[in-house]
Amino acid sequence: MNGRKTFGGGGASGGRGRAGQTQGKDGQQRRPMFRRRKVCKFCVDKIDDINYKDARLLMPFVPERAKILPRRISGTCALHQRKLRVAIMRARVLALIPYTAE
Amino acid sequence: MDRKYELVYLVSPDASDEQVADVHTQVDDIVQRLGGRLEKTDNWGRRRLAYEIGRHKEATYVLEAISGSGELLKEIDRRLKVSDLVIRHLIVRVDEDQDVIERTQTKRGNASSRRRTARGLPPERQPGEGQRGEQDDDRDDRFEMTENRR
Question: Which pTM was predicted?
């Protein structure tokens, strides 16, 4: 639960987060936007074991509607997204993570 | 060859501690009878469920690490399905995944020590070495992703 809340409150990201918001629909054409390259969290933090029991680890990847966050948004690499998916599906069976938002 | 499994089951919140222990002994019995080994049990205690199962909003979680044959786990699965006290259970085979994890970890360790010796450093990371403030950074990435989307 907690993890989901912090996820929604994007303001916590500070200055760099705001830079992303200033980009309007036409902002992209006028000047090159500095979009930070997305990196796979699991590669960077060297998390080998994406475990279904660790709901705290998985929560950031199932935002408000409890859907699995797609790779194109989270930046997770294919290998880890696959493992993440399996872990989330298992955690859902055990009611550690919701299937849907109620 | 015995395989390693993890079994997690959720016991109804109406059950007393003795009944929870009873389910555990039942599982243990089957394991003993069919020539397996109970490696570890871990009672996580009562937790809130992410969604209601039946009419229950919370349940007692118990984790058991078992090594044994597929037949053994099949029997346990069958018994837990029948049980009224156990409202949900999950059996996962873990030995193969653990092998993969170990292999990647040793591979990474070897690669890092090789790089370090190539740079004339001791192969192990020394205390107090490396950048600080790593923790602050890693969480930011995720927040930024959702903002870019909107």
Answer: 0.72
